[in-house]
Design goal:
The chain is mostly beta strands. Helices cover 3% and strands 62% of the residues. It is built from two helices and 22 strands.
């Protein structure tokens, strides 16, 4: 009670009393600000491949622009004499893509646009051939359902209609054959859950392809049969542990088989070996990723990717990829 009374009787502070100002100290600049500032570098990737059988180098260069809103690509190949062939340029963005062939002097344009929340347009145009394709995709009221109409430009017939639904799709297309007048062909895809796997039926060109896929954490079993030819094939995949995986494929109709073994050493090394009985060829490849963080303080990370591919025949392919971020 005495303490509360004393606190209540304490005089209020003098409003005219001067308070010593707190000295303002400039904050220390961050460590990055004290370093030499460099302009923000776009993500760059350079890949070079060499095929010893044909003695040809394959080069690919890509660069992200405008904060990854667009990408620029350049690809070409050259032989041991330095002759450059097949140079191509590409500018790719979300709504517009431009591909230019320097040898043919031809441009391929691709564009896409959302006209409405449920209506999407796509267009492809070949400048040299003066031909293209126009597609319209309309999403229906139910989720997973869509109707797509595709027509050639200039138009030569009825557009191709495709109805997509959660379990597959059905396509109607007009065809013109030499001995038969214009007919309408039906292509369809349907899939459904059967037991613990997924069954897929694909009907195209009067052939029905049935595929059953069973997968669990360690094994995949995928038989496939085509009717009416009764062509049967079987794919089998087995994961022994997180580092070892074996894939096997057998074609009963042609009596051909292939096998691939894959082993990973952490995230930086990958080894693959396989054999294909159809071409009687065995091969092996080694993939190695090496990253250098010596410029990490400047926001630059350099990485090198080496891929060595060899086969039973005298052919060696060496791939070196460089990326800077």
């Amino acid at each position: 009670m005495a303490e509360s009374a004393t606190a209540a009787s304490a005089p209020p502070p003098n409003p005219n009393m001067l308070v010593a100002p707190v000295p303002i100290v400039d904050p220390l600049p961050p460590a990055e600000a004290r370093l030499c500032r460099f302009p923000k570098r776009p993500s760059v990737r350079l890949t070079s491949e060499f095929d010893s059988e044909s003695s040809i180098f394959f080069h690919k260069f890509s660069c992200k622009l405008f904060d990854s809103l667009a990408k620029f690509k350049l690809s070409f190949q050259n032989d041991h004499n330095g002759h450059v062939s097949l140079p191509q340029l590409a500018f790719i963005s979300k709504h517009l893509s431009l591909h230019y062939d320097l040898e043919d002097q031809n441009t391929l344009l691709k564009a896409s646009l959302d006209v409405a929340p449920r209506l999407h347009l796509r267009a492809v145009h070949d400048v040299k051939a003066q031909q293209g394709e126009l597609s319209m995709v309309a999403k229906l009221a139910e989720p997973g359902y869509a109707l797509e109409l595709t027509s050639a430009v200039p138009s030569v017939g009825l557009p191709k209609a495709t109805l997509k639904f959660p379990l597959g799709e059905v396509s109607l297309e007009e065809r013109e054959e030499e001995e038969v007048k214009r007919t309408v062909s039906i292509n369809s895809i349907a899939k459904g859950q059967i037991f613990n796997g997924v069954c897929t039926a694909h009907y195209v060109d009067e052939d029905l392809k049935l595929r059953y896929s069973f997968k669990d954490g360690e094994m995949s079993f995928i038989p496939t049969i085509t009717l009416p030819s009764n062509a049967l094939s079987l794919a089998f995949k087995r994961r022994f542990n997180p580092s070892d995986k074996l894939s096997y494929w057998y074609n009963f109709d042609a009596n051909n088989w292939s096998a691939v073994y894959k082993h990973t050493y952490g995230k930086d090394f990958k080894f693959k070996a396989g054999y294909d009985s159809e071409v009687r060829l065995g091969w092996a490849s080694l993939w190695w990723l090496c990253q250098c963080y010596c410029y990490h303080s400047l926001g630059i990370i350099k990485s090198l990717v080496f891929l060595l591919h060899t086969s039973c025949v005298p052919s060696v392919e060496f791939v070196c990829a460089h990326a800077g971020v």
